[in-house]
Amino acid sequence: MPVRIPSRLPASEILRSENIFVMSDERAESQDIRPLKLLILNLMPNKIETETQLLRLLGNSPLQVDVELLRIHRKPSKHTSIDHMDDFYRDFDEVRDNNYDGLIITGAPLGNIEFEQVSYWSEICEIIQWSQQRATSVLFLCWAAHAALYHLYGIKRYLRDDKISGVFRHRRVHSHVPLLRGFDDEFWVPHSRYAQVSLDRLKAHERLRVLAESDEAGAYLIVSEDNRNLFVTGHPEYTRTTLQDEYRRDRAGGGTPQVPKNYYPKDDPTQPPHARWHAHGALLISNWLNYCVYQQTPYDLNSLHQKAE
Q: At which residues is there a site annotated Important for substrate specificity (predicted)?
């Protein structure tokens, strides 16, 4: 089944060229079905790139998904036009009274800044708190995962001296968990961040469960006891070249970044990079939509907020 997005959204043409089924508003309105309502809070600078990455994974599900895009503020973006933001993104005041089957909050390039120093920290906290009543399940990616663990559970991260950048081997900690259904015992995931959360502290928390971890990258998948919140510290949505683009950008900016680990053949950045996480990324998003959203959400979304009250 398709992802429902505006036909003029740049991701629409890209995904169609990849044979990923997307549906226009006009066609969706002719169908007698209740799609899942999904909200994406996009905090990344290049909005179009991130939209496309996430919609590519959502389009791999058999469920019909109606996607809305949310922005954190109205400040101009360096990498995305004002027209694009005004055409396709909504402000929080426009959605605060709505209920959603699912919410995704993306990462942000704020890894070495203390949370309270982030210019929109109060807005992030407000949306996280709002999501606990207005969304059946919330998927937090990378920076957003650390931010939500801090806001909801008081778990502080620590800043590393070096950046975790590369593709790392992970293992399942639990078996027979719906979110991990179909996962191999070991799998690979891209990471790109400066911060870390203590694995021991996460495992000791009575309201959280670590589902997957890595010797090098630490905790990767953490879920709340009620399955409402899924914290993903890596980037299953990344394309083959995303880490390469970041590496080249940092070098062009005068930095001396380390070559992303386990990414290029023989760690040689002149070679085309390996991509060995796409199957895992698609499966993770499909499982989240199925087990945490579709099978948990009420048919009448209005009852979601009523139950929370």
A: 192
pLDDT in tens, 130-139: 999 999 999 9
DSSP string, 44-69: SSSHHHHHHHHHHHHTTSSS-EEEEE
13: left (phi over 0), alpha (psi -120 to 50) or beta: alpha
Q: What is the pTM of this model?
A: 0.89
Q: Which amino acid is at 93?
A: D
Residues catalogued as catalytic: 142, 235, 237
3-state secondary structure of 144: helix
C-alpha count within 13 angstroms, C-beta hemisphere, residue 127:
30
* Residue 172 token pair: 């399942």
Determine what percent of the chain falls in helix, strand and coil, rounding each to the nearest 5.
35, 25, 40
pLDDT tens for 153-202 read 999 999 988 899 999 999 999 888 999 999 999 999 999 999 999 999 99
Give the tens place of pLDDT for each residue, 239-280.
Answer: 999 999 999 999 998 888 999 999 999 999 999 998 999 999
Residue 203 assigned to a binding site: no
Closest among 69, 90, 88 to 7, alpha carbons compared: 88
- Measured in degrees and rounded to the nearest 5, phi and psi for residue 6 equal -60, 140
Helix residue ranges per DSSP H, the chain: 10-17, 25-28, 47-58, 82-88, 92-95, 121-134, 143-153, 199-204, 242-252, 278-287, 302-308
Task: State how beta strands 36-41 and 65-70 pair.
Answer: parallel
Which domains, and CATH codes, for the chain? 3-238+278-308 (3.40.50.880), 240-274 (no CATH)
Q: Are 263 and 243 in contact (CB under 8 A)?
A: yes
Name the residue with tokens 């905790």. 219
Is 251 annotated in some ligand binding site? Answer: no
